[in-house]
Amino acid sequence: MNNINISKGFVDKAVCVDNLKEEIEKLKKEKNALVLAHYYTEGEIQDIADFVGDSLALAQWAKKTDASIIVMCGVHFMGETAKILCPDKKVLVPDLNAGCSLADSCDADEFAKFIEENPGHTVISYVNTTAAVKYHTDIVVTSTNARQIVESLPADEKIIFGPDRNLGNYINSITGRNMLLWDGACHVHEKFSLEKILDLKKEYPTAKVLAHPECKKVILTVADHVGSTAALLNYSVKDDCDTFIVATESGILHEMQKKCPQKNFIPAPPMDSTCACNECSFMRLNSLEKLYNTLKYELPEVEVDEAIIERSKLPIDRMLDISAKLGL
Ligand code: 13P
Ligand code: SF4
Questions:
Q1: How many domains does the structure of the chain reveal?
Q2: Ligand 2 pocket, 106 CB below 6 A?
Q3: Which of 93, 114, 221, 320 lies in the 20 to 30 Å Cα band around 69?
Q4: Whose CA is nearest to atom 5 of ligand 2?
Q5: pTM above 0.85, yes or no
Q6: What are the φ/ψ torsions at residue 301 (nearest 5 degrees)?
Q7: 225/293 same-domain check
């Protein structure tokens, strides 16, 4: 195992097997490994995962599994969250380079300074943060439970919310709170084009617009439904409409189309039509080859400092406890 090269952030070893999917299934059983995948990963990763979900569901699965190994096909902060919840388990990610521009927009030391400069606030952090930022946090939230968790606090409670300014502004607008916001954003959700969405609405006049709250306010204003990836998926299944323009990372269309093969899902276009900016380049680093190597060599492993695990587990557990009470 020692001669395996992960200097590039993934196991850099050519995969020479015919039935990659079968081999992955075999390794999962052999090693009692649970493969979790976020809705933003490639369809073939979602199809081979034991569970596909949004950030909250992935954390809940990690917490309750009795598997010996968790492979998190998502981005690094999701692997860290799983490791914090299950410090005694081996948590692997197919590619350590799968970061997150939103998590990167919030440096832990600068966030700590921001908190210090604004004393007397309860600190709420979106799960899309590093473990080091969670260390400075009172309650973690995801897009599924942010509204309810904020509303569970007394109306006059002073709150710092980070790092996503769009989600923060949205929660402020629907709860009437005045949370102090960190100025961060996700490079995928910031790039949707209002003009192009309105053009699509002209082309498909009965289509409904679904938007993730990480999108800018102008996009949320034209949305028929705003919610987490899981909430958008549920809405698209239950609603009678047969055409949806989807303003979030386009990987979610895989599950939408699987659940509703008769409906039409159109990815909302980014401003720059020459890029695939509605795809998260980090999520797309997960591949079947890397997943196979990860299971085979049990690398690369997510590591979090023990002292950070101890402190950052508190706000994650708080989120999971409140969510359980709320039935989320
Ligand atoms: P959810 O999984 O909570 O919908 O968040 C989306 C996201 O940006 C994950 O990186
Ligand atoms: Fe981070 Fe945005 Fe990618 Fe989600 S879509 S992982 S918020 S960069």
A1: 3
A2: no
A3: 320
A4: 280
A5: yes
A6: -100, 145
A7: no
Give pLDDT tens digits for 186-195. Answer: 999 999 999 9
Residue 218 included in any domain: yes
- Identify the burial level of 2 via C-beta atoms within 10 angstroms of its C-beta, where 0-12 means exposed, 13-18 middle and 19 or more buried: exposed
Domain annotation covers residue 275: no
Report yes or no on 278 lying in a domain: no
Task: Give the Cα separation of 116 and 162 in Å (integer).
Answer: 14
Q: What is the largest CA-CA distance in the chain?
A: 61
142 close to ligand 2 (CB < 6 Angstrom): no
Tell me how far the alpha carbon of residue 289 lies from the centroid of ligand 1, in angstroms.
Answer: 24
Q: What is the pLDDT of residues 173-232, one digit of tens each?
A: 999 999 999 999 999 999 999 999 999 999 999 999 999 999 999 999 999 999 999 999
The overall average pLDDT reported for the chain is: 97
Q: Are residues 174 and 247 in the same domain?
A: no
CA of 177 to the centre of ligand 1 (A): 22
- What are the pLDDT digits (tens) for 42-77? 999 999 999 999 999 999 999 999 999 999 999 999
Which atom of ligand 2 is the closest one to the Cα of 282? 3
Instruction: Identify whether residues 181 and 314 lie together within a single domain.
Output: yes
Its domain, for residue 224, covers: 189-267
pLDDT-based confidence at residue 276 (cuts at 50, 70, 90): confident
Q: Which ligand is nearest to the CA of 251?
A: 2
